[in-house]
Write a structure and sequence with these properties.
By secondary structure, the chain is of the alpha+beta class. The protein has six helices and 23 strands. Helix 2 crosses helix 6. Pfam families: Glyco_transf_92.
Amino acid sequence: MLCSGKKSYFAAAVCIMTVTSMLAVSYLKLQRLPHQPKVVQEGRRCRGKIATSTITALEGNKTFIISPYFDDRESKVTRLIGIVHHEDVKQLYCWFCCQANGKIYVSKAEIDVHSDRFGFPYGATDIVCLEPKNCDPTHVSIHESPYGNIDQLPRFEIKNRKPETFSVDFTVCISAMFGNYNNVLQFIQSMEMYKILGVQKVVIYKNNCSHLMEKVLKFYIEEGTVEVIPWPINSHLRVSSEWRFMQDETQIGYYGQITALNDCIYRNMERSKFVVLNDADEIILPLKHPDWKTMMNSLQEQNPGTSVFLFENHIFPEAVSSPMFNISSWNTVPGVNILQHVYREPDRKDVINPRKMIVDPRKVIQTSVHSVLRAYGKSVYIPMDVALIYHCRKGLQGNLPRESLIRDTTLWRYNSSLIMNVNKVLSQTVLQNQN
């Protein structure tokens, strides 16, 4: 025996530790082994129908694939953003087809359901597979078994395979537009404020909206500002418009918002220096700087090693208005005129003020709505005297008298440019055929 002949307690202890370590290493190797890609077929051409939908249901209807992304920040893997049932999906396999050598590899996936599921049975999920070492696959298929015929599986293009130089500084991710969204005026004002502050791209995960809103989106798409990602999640799951599970029959919260946000980060990882995660009725307003680029340069200099910047959310109730900027041509446009709402609610005692984020997408692994779940680098809370989130919506403290609200006219610093730009968009969209 390995430990025979050892009489002292010390020697026995060392011997036990050695054997334990050897067993542990062997166990870890065995645990890792199934995840290594294995050749299952040779001399085959890559077949299978290429998936074109934003959300693809796999057979069995417990797993939904959004998109796979190449991720070599720790090791060479394909990371698929998806949605799975947190209890019923136990194993999945990536099928990689290598065009160069005609070999098909199968790799066991790590299924990582995000912790912020809020009680719903389905949640945002990372499906992570090691890639073959001698191949850079362009497509991947997913199956619950390592056996079968790849020709019967949908194929997904692996994005971010080739590094790109940043095409934009700031991309705003909005998820998800639903409920026949028709807040047209506020949406246009938000888009124009984003552009004034330095945004070049806005990505919108659209479930549905009004016909008029479609017209506005078409304008911004043709302008090059907006990219619309179809988000038909209610075709696959029973969705809730609430963020927390209410013990009903719904399967995923807030139209799969968290999944869309994670997809948006990876989608823009190689093309945008920063990604901004907020809703269409939210604007991060800098107080010490004229725009976001100047603000972020300063914040990065003051906070080296930081990859996540969190900004306080402040409610400007739409029920409380100012008579200023009552522009007659805007009164026929559905939606809220944010220039007339400059009274914000005070902070509530013993209530955590939610935050939204500007992040370095290359440093984020998983995100939730108000914080990142996993990231490289630090997170920092940005003081309110540097910037705040202007959030014009239904008030949360409806019984407060006007004198208890705080008058905050920061938004008015941009009124001249904002009015001019909004009028331009309205004249080419909503008001185009009006006399």
